[in-house]
């Protein structure tokens, strides 16, 4: 019975996601929600625009994530809409914060799930840019709920929830643990350790760092903010974007690339919660995301070249032959994955 229900759900999701009319309607809804959020940010129009835009984008993103993952987009979309309206009506800080956390996580996971395999590096860079743009719209919706949590707690909760969600989704898409392989296992272990070390190190510096050590570290941050306008977000630049670029490149060749892509939420989550920090301006937040994308793509390029060298594809001719053989199929961006 469970398998039959799952097959029916997958068929409905494929029909919904593959419908061109549904894609057009979804795009218009997201555009209207984004316009309402931008209008409130300017500010122009009534205060209700912020909450309405946040609920609209959160609902549309929930529908897209459910359809992309082979679930029931109508059911989950209706649930997200109902909960979002209830949050606005009740208007409690705890509910608004919870809605912001869920919106941020949905945006981060969707940003990774809408990517497609990349045969060449420039295509991997395109997919990273698409993911950042999807998460950026989610950032507007996240701040539109006006969360009332401490910044560090909000960032840690959203990152943990997004990463767990992404890993579970990848596992359910058919790339189970048996599909990891040696290279995928190494990538997952290294990505987990790198993410844990960066988060723990930042937290230790914030709480227990000596004035001299933190002073030297923050001197570079201050210089970058004064001369470049912003400083790249470390998790995005060092883990998230490189993992997403390498993962999309690997997905065109091996199914364990999805496991590497799951760590792309380390880029999408900081983007989706970038506007929550009241200590930086919107321009600085945008520049920080852009710098993180550039630095991360550079590191991702090095990872891809190293991967190709290890697999024996050195030299231009060998790389072109390897790219011609990279034909692992996946559904298009607007179709269900499962």
Element string (H = helix, E = strand): HHHHHHHHHHHHHH
Radius of gyration: 20 Å
Strand content: under 5%
Mean pLDDT: 83
The CA-CA distance between the termini, in Å, is 18 Å
Spans of at least 5 consecutive residues with low confidence: none
- Give the helix proportion (percent range): over 70%
Strands, total number? 0
The main β sheet shows up as: none
CA-based shape: globular
Which structural category do the helix and sheet elements fall into? mainly alpha
Figure out the total of helices. Answer: 14
Question: Describe it for me?
Answer:
The protein is an all-alpha fold and 338 residues long. The protein is 77% helix and 0% strand. It contains 14 helices and no strands. Helix 6 runs antiparallel to helix 13. The two termini are 18 Å apart.
Topology, element by element:
Layout: H1 2-18, H2 20-41, H3 48-68, H4 73-90, H5 93-113, H6 121-144, H7 151-172, H8 181-208, H9 211-227, H10 234-251, H11 257-261, H12 265-272, H13 282-310, H14 316-325
Helix pairs in contact: 1-3, 2-3, 2-6, 3-4, 3-5, 3-6, 5-6, 5-7, 5-12, 6-10, 6-12, 6-13, 7-12, 8-10, 10-12, 10-13
In short:
With 338 residues, this protein is an all-alpha fold. It has helices at 2-18, 20-41, 48-68, 73-90, 93-113, 121-144, 151-172, 181-208, 211-227, 234-251, 257-261, 265-272, 282-310, 316-325.
Record keyword descriptors for this entry:
mainly alpha
């Amino acid at each position: 019975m469970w398998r039959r229900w799952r097959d029916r759900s997958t068929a409905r999701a494929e029909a919904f996601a593959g419908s061109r009319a549904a894609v057009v309607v979804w795009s218009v809804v997201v555009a209207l929600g984004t316009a309402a959020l931008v209008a409130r940010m300017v500010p122009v129009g009534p205060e209700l625009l912020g909450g309405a835009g946040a609920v609209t984008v959160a609902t549309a993103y929930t529908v897209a994530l459910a359809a992309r993952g082979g679930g029931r987009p109508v059911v989950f979309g209706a649930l997200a809409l109902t909960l979002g309206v209830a949050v606005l009506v009740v208007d409690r800080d705890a509910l608004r914060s919870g809605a912001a956390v869920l919106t941020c996580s949905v945006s981060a996971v969707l940003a990774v799930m809408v990517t497609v395999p990349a045969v060449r590096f420039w295509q991997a860079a395109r997919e990273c840019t698409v993911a950042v743009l999807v998460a950026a719209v989610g950032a507007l919706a996240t701040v539109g709920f006006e969360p009332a949590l401490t910044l560090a707690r909000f960032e840690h909760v959203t990152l943990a929830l997004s990463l767990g969600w992404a890993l579970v989704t990848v596992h359910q898409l058919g790339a189970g643990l048996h599909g990891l392989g040696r290279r995928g296992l190494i990538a997952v272990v290294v990505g987990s350790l790198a993410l844990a070390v960066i988060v723990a190190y930042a937290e230790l510096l914030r709480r227990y760092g000596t004035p001299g050590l933190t002073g030297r570290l923050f001197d570079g941050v201050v210089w970058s903010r004064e001369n470049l306008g912003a400083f790249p977000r470390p998790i995005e630049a060092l883990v998230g974007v490189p993992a997403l670029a390498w993962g999309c490149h690997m997905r065109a060749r091996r199914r364990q690339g999805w496991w590497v892509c799951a760590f792309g939420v380390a880029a999408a989550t900081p983007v989706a919660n970038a506007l929550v920090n009241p200590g930086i301006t919107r321009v600085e937040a945008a520049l920080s995301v852009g710098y993180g994308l550039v630095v991360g793509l550079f590191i991702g390029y090095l990872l891809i070249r190293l991967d190709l060298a290890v697999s024996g594809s050195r030299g231009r001719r060998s790389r072109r032959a390897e790219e011609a053989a990279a034909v692992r199929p996946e559904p298009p961006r607007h179709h269900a994955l499962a």
